[in-house]
Structure formats: C-alpha cells, structure tokens
Amino acid sequence: MGITSALVLLAVIWFMVLFIVLPLRLETQGDRGEVVPGTHSSAPADFNFKRKAKIVTIVAVPIWLVIAGTILSGVISVRDLDWFHRMSTPQSVQTD
After folding, report:
1. CB-based contacts of 45: which residues, under 8 Å, 6+ apart?
2. I need a surface site. Which of 14, 30, 45, 51 has the fewest CB within 10 A?
3. 29 alpha carbon, distance to own chain's centre
4. Does a structural domain hold residue 90?
C-alpha cells in the first residue's frame, strides 16, 4: 500500500466515523426551547466541531491501524475478495 492509498483509506474511515459520531449527544435548539429565528428547531444548539473532530480522530486512527496492518501483512489480499473469480491466477501458482 502506497502513501496515497493509506491516506485515502484514513480519510474514508475518518468520515465514516464522523457520520456515526455527529448525531451522538446532539442537543437541538428545539430541545432547549431557544429557536433562533430563521433556523429549524432541529438545528444544533451548541455545536463544537473541534471536540467532535478530536473524538473522531481518536476512534478512526486505531481502526485505520488495524485495517492498514492487515493489508500490509498480507493476511487478506485482493484475491481473497475475488468472489466471482474474475481475476486470473498468478503465473507462479498455476498448475497444468
């Protein structure tokens, strides 16, 4: 896995975790009863993205380490995920 692949994998995992973490412990303006004119009552009351980003990073990095380590160790390869046998077998493994 190259550096670009590793960074793309980290970005995908980070955003997946972000979408899971965003609604957790969300307090809306409607819950507080303090709806700002021109906004929906479901809008967040006090949104702290920096705190959410720290939580997401703390959760996403260990997940990324496990997945990247598994890919780099060779335990699971792309050929293991070829369920429809569309990839040719490597020349060194072919038997006649």
Report:
1. 27, 28, 29, 31, 32, 34
2. 51
3. 28
4. no
Nearest to 9 by CA among 65, 78, 86: 65
Residue range 61-87: average pLDDT? 87
Give how many domains the chain has, as a whole number.
1
Is residue 91 a part of any domain in this protein?
A: no
Please give the single-letter amino acid code of residue 74.
Answer: G
pLDDT tens digits, residue range 1-51?
A: 789 999 999 999 999 999 999 988 888 888 888 888 888 888 888 888 999
Please, are residues 63 and 13 in contact by the beta-carbon 8 Å criterion? Answer: yes
Residue 75, pLDDT > 70, answer yes
